């Protein structure tokens, strides 16, 4: 083969190879080439463009295109991209639905818990109302009993005071009669002595003088009771009033539902109220007037069972009229 033929063959091969780089009817053409377009090797899903080998080089060498996703060239690039986006959207939507379902499940569980709390609070309010109503009823019973005891003791004290008054008046009246009789006897003796002073009968003088010179035994006036005795009774009752009032003011006005432990002890025999370690008790023996008041007039008023933490109100006895009351 001569040189011309060989050169012609090489030219033909180059033309065929050059024709092979260009896009045919069935090939995907490069979207960047001007004029006759070369066949595209890759399509970029980020750029939405197909590139030939020459125009694809920036995607391999530039950092700006590192995150671009390259796929084999395709005529249906838009459809593939749309389908790919649909798949991505479906996956993302499924993930969102999963997260939303998890969040809703937590919310529904929280709602169920709160519903239980609401029901518990409702039951608690009913329990509080029932307890308060029961406590009010018990309080009425306690204060009614306290009032009854106080009124009973008041009547008893007043009765004993009136009895004491009559006894003392009778005793003073008896003493008054004795003293009046003593005065009458002394006046008679004084009159007889005055007559005797003017008599001239020596024998009569000597006979009468010894009897008239004896004044007799004077009546003892030290046993007359003082009005201070009744004042002492009033002072004693005032102490009872003050002590009971202090217990009521300190313990019955500071009840709290929280913060301070309140315990109401209800006993038919001895109703009591306990608040934070302080206890007030009342009983039928709070005020005692001795039933065996006699001529010697023994009188005792006593406060019992009014107690506070670490201290107590000492029971007291009034002894100005005696001290042997039981």
From TrEMBL:
Please indicate if the UniProt record lists Ribonucleoprotein as a keyword: no
Where is the stretch described as Disordered?
A: 1-22
Highest taxon of source:
Eukaryota
Q: Which UniProt keywords apply?
A: Metal-binding, Zinc, Zinc-finger
* Amino acid composition bias (Acidic residues), ranges on this chain: 1-17
The chain positions of domain TRIM8/14/16/25/29/45/65 coiled-coil region read 111-249
The protein's matches in Pfam families, at most eight in alphabetical order, are given as: TRIM_CC
The record's annotation in CDD domains points to: Bbox1_TRIM25-like_C-IV
Membrane-crossing residue ranges in chain numbering: none
UniProt keyword annotation of Metal-binding present: yes
One annotated GO molecular function is: zinc ion binding
Name-wise, this protein is Tripartite motif-containing protein 29-like isoform X2
Q: Which organism is it from?
A: Gymnodraco acuticeps (Antarctic dragonfish)
Lineage summary: Eukaryota, Metazoa, Chordata, Craniata, Vertebrata
């Amino acid at each position: 083969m001569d040189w011309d033929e060989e050169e012609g063959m090489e030219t033909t091969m180059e033309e065929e190879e050059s024709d092979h780089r260009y896009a045919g009817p069935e090939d995907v053409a490069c979207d960047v080439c001007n004029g006759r377009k070369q066949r595209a090797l890759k399509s970029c899903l980020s750029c939405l463009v197909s590139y030939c080998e020459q125009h694809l080089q920036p995607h391999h060498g530039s950092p700006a295109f590192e995150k671009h996703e390259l796929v084999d060239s395709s005529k249906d690039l838009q459809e593939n991209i749309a389908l790919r986006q649909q798949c991505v959207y479906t996956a993302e939507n499924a993930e969102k639905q999963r997260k939303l379902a998890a969040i809703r499940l937590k919310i529904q569980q929280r709602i169920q818990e709160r519903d239980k709390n609401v029901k518990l609070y409702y039951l608690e309010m009913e329990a509080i109302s029932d307890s308060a109503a029961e406590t009010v009823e018990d309080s009425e019973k306690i204060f009614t009993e306290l009032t009854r005891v106080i009124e009973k003791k008041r009547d008893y004290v007043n009765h004993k005071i009136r009895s004491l008054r009559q006894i003392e008046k009778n005793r003073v009246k008896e003493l008054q009669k004795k003293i009046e009789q003593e005065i009458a006897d002394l006046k008679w003796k004084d009159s007889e002595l005055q007559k005797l002073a003017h008599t001239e009968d020596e024998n009569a003088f000597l006979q009468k003088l010894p009897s008239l010179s004896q004044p007799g035994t004077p009546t003892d006036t030290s046993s007359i009771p003082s009005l201070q005795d009744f004042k002492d009774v009033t002072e004693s009752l005032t102490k009872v009033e003050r002590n009971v009032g202090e217990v009521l003011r300190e313990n019955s006005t500071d009840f709290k539902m929280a913060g301070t432990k309140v315990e109401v002890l209800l006993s038919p025999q001895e109703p009591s109220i306990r608040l934070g370690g302080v206890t007030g008790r009342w009983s039928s023996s709070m005020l005692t007037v001795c039933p065996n008041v006699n001529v010697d007039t023994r009188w005792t008023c006593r406060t019992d069972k009014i107690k506070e933490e670490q201290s107590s109100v000492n029971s007291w006895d009034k002894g100005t009229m005696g001290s042997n009351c039981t």
